[in-house]
Specification:
Largest sheet: 5 strands, mixed
Strand order of the largest sheet: 5-6-7-8-9
Radius of gyration: 17 Å
Order of helices and strands: EEEEHEEEEEH
Strand content: 35-45%
Number of domains: 2
Mean pLDDT: 77
Length: 152
Amino acid sequence: MATPKIETAKETLAYCGSCKMDLAAIVVARTGAKIVKVQCKTCKKEHGFKAPKGVSDPGDAPAPKARKTKTSAEGSSKAVSMEAEWTRLLKEAGAAPRTKYTPKTLLDVGVIVNHSMFGEGIVMRVIHPNKAEILFKGDLKILIHAGSSAVK
């Protein structure tokens, strides 16, 4: 089975150690089809690629580095596109109710929204006081919501 080709300057989901969560990242360096280095789109820091937590979808992550004193096994972690993660999350949500997005809507993590321009998305993180990070099919967007009135 052929592995999908992952090119540099493409987006993927990766764990960011600075942000302490899985976020959209740009592939900066790769070895063959394995992602080696990414740049977080949120904090703009470059770091070694770490697969998102609990991912088992297409795309190979780099194998762990071999140590001279120990033998290493092939890594089973996988890189995943944002679209694949979006699809997985919406499947898990199933028939959960969808909320029409407006800037006056109060959002919480896990809420599925229908946006007039971006389509269906899922709230990944609420950023204090009035912003939410929402994963849409092709992108991760930060949008405002009614959180500021709920905080006061």
